[in-house]
Each structure stands twice: as structure tokens, then as C-alpha cells.
DNA sequence: GCTCATAACCGAGCGTACTCAGAAACTATT
DNA sequence: AATAGTTTCTGAGTACGCTCGGTTATGAGC
């Protein structure tokens, strides 16, 4: 360990490499075939690791999906936050925050719905679930800020409104009858409901 | 088939008998141990039928849960509708409709959450899922009626408000962070959110 | 009653997510 | 560089939901 430029041992580097391979394999297979049509065996094989090894990096298949997709939602949220500034009123500002998330979710409907299912019903003790939850929390905080800026609901009311918006988003993207809708149609569905609360 | 008093053949009677035994077995085992801790084998054994036979009556384990629980929710809804009449304002009326449903759902938290998961993510082509969906639709219709009676959101707005209420109910009962809450606490959570829309 | 077509039933078997006991790889120490 | 201790890896094995080909029960026609 003479070199300060190499603080990481081979062990750490190997681990990182495997994680990268797993992420790449899962990302590609999920995108191409959908999470339900891909087996954990296939992912392990493509990542060139043993089947047991896969579960050292993500304890369940659901965690694997969260692991692979969280970053995209984080990026989407960042975009939404930026877009919200230019909106003419609360309703449009909230929708500006929501739009990239919905678009991200609808890139592949089944994966999107599975992602939501995993957030709502998955094991809250798993690390990637925690990461997903903090994205949800951050989303609500951003929406609460937007609502606060409007002033209509006061300091205390803003988080409640944000929570309500969360409910509407999750439900609209999850329910079976909305499965055929594309991002734009989902957004229209959400707008109609939020207009009741945030009439401009 | 000389007797008009026995229009059903042995075949139909046997089927009905088996269905009854399955329902009884599943009801008891789910209630006692929770849906996740019960195997389909156990249910089949307790109902005294082959494992394959079980799946002639409910195509998936999830369907089995819906089959067993739908009736309770239907009854809860009926109670709620009756209670709504006596409420002093819209918010209280909506909560009167919602209360029995939440109480029904929280009798056993894990089963309740699984029931919701099955409604939102289950196969919409299955018969018991369809039945569950029609309970949801009916709930929204009742809430829409209550909202219409208030007049605040007009004829067109009422179904949208009802849908929004659905979102809030489902989300509040489903999310992991609310898992420790009892029926009364869930209702309080729902009330806080609905108050934003239905302020008295 | 006998025959046959059909509906209902059964349980061995399959696919797949996940586990676990032992093997292998790595690091620290001398 | 040999040893020991620890972490990481592995794939055969397990559990469980569900399927499917073969079997049995039922009832209609004669």
C-alpha cells in the first residue's frame, strides 16, 4: 500500500467492477424485454457472475429494478425543479415538476408500473428502496415549496398539498385502466384532478 | 331429473361444495397467519382438494384473496353509504363513506395492503379482480353523489373529486410509512388531506 | 342399465426467485 | 513467501406458485 494514488485495494475494485457489470446487464435486459420477462439467471449470466452473487448486490429482483432506475428519476426530478421556475401559476409549476417524472416512468409502461409497485409495497429496509423513498420525499419537498410560494395554503398546508399530489401521481401512473395511456395522457389525467385543488 | 325442486345436478352441487370449502379454508388461514405466510398447498389440503383443483376456482393466489375478501368490502361500502346521510357537511359525509372501508382494510394490515396491491397491479381480466374493481367504481359513484349534493364542484367536477379521494385513500392505506397506523390514524391522515379540497 | 362425450379433478412436474455451505480470492502479518 | 483471517463468490439446492397430461365422475342418449 505504498501508493497513495491507489487507496482502493483489488477487492474494492473487483466489487465495483462486478456492480458495474450487473447494472449494465440489468439495465439492458430490463429495457429490452421488460422486468417480468427477464430472469435473474439471465442477468447473472450476462454480467458473468454466479446466480448467488447477484443477490449480494441486490437482495431481491425488485431491488435490482430500483437500483437500475433510481438515477433516472433523480435526473428527471432535477429537470422538473428547473422547469418549475418558468411556470405562470401553481398548477403549471406543479405539472412542470411532475412532467419529467411521468415521462421517465412511461418510457416502458410495465417497468414503470413495477417501479411504483416496488416503492409502495417493497421492503423499506433495503438500500435502493430507501434511495427511491428519498426521491419521493424530495419531490414532495419541491412541490411543497412551489405551493408555499403561491401562498394559498399557508406554511402548514403546503406539505399536505404536496402529499395529495403524490397520491394523485402514483395512483394515476399505477392503475390498470390507465395502463394504455402515454405520458401526455397521464399528465392530462393528473392535471384534471389537480385543477380541483390548484385552480388558477 | 324428475324433481323440479332439484334443478341442480350433482356436478353443480359438488362444485359449489368445493368452492365453499375453499372459501372457508382460505378465509381462516389468511385471517390466522396472513396471506404471505400461507401456501396454496395448505389451503388445498385444508379444503381437502388437489393442489391443481384450487387453481380452477381462482387462477392465482391473489385472486383467491380478492375472492375471499370482496364481500366484506361490499358490506363495508353499504354501511358507509348509509352513514353518509347523517353527516353535517361534505367532508364528514365522504369520511363516513370511507371509514368502514378503512376499518375493513385494517382488520389485518398485511392482508389489507395485499388486497390493495392486487386491485392496482393484479390481472384485470380475472373475475374477482373485476368484482373488486366494481366496488371501487361504486365507491367513487357514491362519493361523487355526496360531492354533487354539496354543489361546490358542479355536475362535471364531482367524479373528478371522487377519483381524487380514491387516490388519497389507496395511497394512505398502501404506503409503507403508514403500515404501523391503525384505522383511526389512517382516517386522520385521509381527513387532513381531504380537508384541503373539501374545507367545510 | 350401458356407452360415450364432456366436465371436473388430481398431483407430479416445471420455472424461477432466492439461500446456504463450502470454495476461492484477497489482505495483513511475520 | 508462507500463514492465517476475512471477505467475496458460487451453483446446487429449496420453496412455492402454478401448469398440464392423464384420470375419474357425471349425465345424456339409447
**What spatial form of chain A do the alpha-carbon principal axes imply?**
elongated
Largest sheet of chain A: none
Using the 3D structure, state the CATH architecture of the largest domain in chain A. Orthogonal Bundle
Biggest protein-protein contact in the assembly = A-B, 27 and 27 residues
Q: How many strand units of chain A? A: 0
Q: What is the multimeric organization of the chains shown?
A: homodimer
For the record, what CATH class of the largest domain in chain A applies? Mainly Alpha
Helix run count of chain A? 9
Output the CATH topology of the largest domain in chain A.
Answer: Tetracycline Repressor, domain 2
The total number of structural domains of chain A is: 2
Terminal Cα separation of chain A, in Å? Answer: 64 Å
As residue ranges, the low-confidence spans of chain A are 1-6
Radius of gyration of chain A: 19 Å
CATH superfamily of the largest domain in chain A: Tetracycline Repressor, domain 2
Mean pLDDT of chain A: 95
User: How would you classify the helix and strand content of chain A by structural class?
Assistant: mainly alpha
Which strand-content bin applies to the residues of chain A? under 5%
Q: Helicity of chain A, in percent?
A: over 70%
Order of helices and strands of chain A: HHHHHHHHH
Keywords (chains A, B): DNA-binding, Transcription, Transcription regulation
Protein name (chains A, B): TetR/AcrR family transcriptional regulator
Domain HTH tetR-type (chains A, B): 16-76
GO molecular function, one term (chains A, B): DNA-binding transcription factor activity
Amino acid at each position: 500500500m505504498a501508493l497513495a494514488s491507489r487507496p482502493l485495494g483489488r477487492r474494492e475494485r473487483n466489487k465495483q467492477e462486478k456492480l458495474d457489470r450487473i447494472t449494465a446487464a440489468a439495465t439492458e435486459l430490463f429495457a429490452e424485454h421488460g422486468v417480468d420477462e427477464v430472469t435473474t439467471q439471465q442477468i447473472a449470466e450476462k454480467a458473468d457472475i454466479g446466480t448467488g452473487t447477484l443477490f449480494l448486490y441486490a437482495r431481491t429482483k425488485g431491488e435490482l429494478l430500483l437500483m437500475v432506475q433510481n438515477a433516472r428519476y433523480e435526473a428527471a426530478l432535477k429537470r422538473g425543479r428547473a422547469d418549475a421556475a418558468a411556470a405562470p401559476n401553481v398548477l403549471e409549476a406543479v405539472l412542470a415538476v411532475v412532467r419529467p417524472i411521468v415521462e421517465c416512468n412511461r418510457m416502458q409502461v410495465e417497468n414503470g408500473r413495477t417501479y411504483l409497485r416496488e416503492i409502495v409495497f417493497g421492503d423499506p429496509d433495503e438500500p435502493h428502496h430507501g434511495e427511491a423513498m428519498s426521491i419521493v420525499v424530495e419531490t414532495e419537498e419541491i412541490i411543497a415549496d412551489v405551493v408555499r410560494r403561491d401562498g394559498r395554503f399557508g406554511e402548514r398546508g403546503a406539505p399536505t398539498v404536496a402529499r395529495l399530489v403524490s397520491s394523485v401521481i402514483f395512483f394515476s401512473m399505477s392503475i390498470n385502466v390507465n395502463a394504455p395511456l402515454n405520458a401526455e395522457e397521464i399528465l392530462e389525467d393528473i392535471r384534471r384532478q389537480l385543477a380541483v385543488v390548484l385552480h388558477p
